[in-house]
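Table 4 source record.
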Amino acid sequence: MERTPGLTGWGLVGLWVAACLVGAGPAVAATASGKVTARGDWRLSDDGSLVIHTKTGSAWKRCAEGMNWTGKACTGEPRLLSHADALALAAATAKADGVRWRLPRVTELQRLVKRGESPHRLDPVLFPGGPREWHWASTANVRQQSVNPYNYGNVMRGVNAHNVNQMAFLHGWAVNLSSGDADSETPKRNLLPVRLVRPQPRESTDR
């Protein structure tokens, strides 16, 4: 039987490995030097300081607030803020930069977590050195509900028809960037890291 050149022995193994790599995980784009420029639905801005979600057009700083992008890594310590201070920071940053920076919604923060890996985590290539614990979200926490005054759990927590909505006002949404879990009962006075999001910036088309 005639054999096809290059498709025997280690050649077949090489083809099999290549096929597996092509079909495994999200597409990764890199420069000739090996520097990653895109991963799946995400790509880096021209200067590498922003991570852009190609499907929604949202752009994120590679570093949490309080940290600085050096061109290679995030340095410094993340700022820990209350929910009110996080909203104020977003407004001040938007005014200073002239772009619509804002606090992200729960679903937007959850999108940052790589769920295809175990354990889930914030992508360390796109967001290097960032905090992975709970982060503030802007999603409104509105709970207009009736309360059973005879429920044991409500009695133990001191929840009643008069204070349940006030308690909802005092709590906000946060997302854990190590797991993607969301919590709607985080006291707004808690101090958490912050990541801001903005529309995709216009970039030069000159190459």
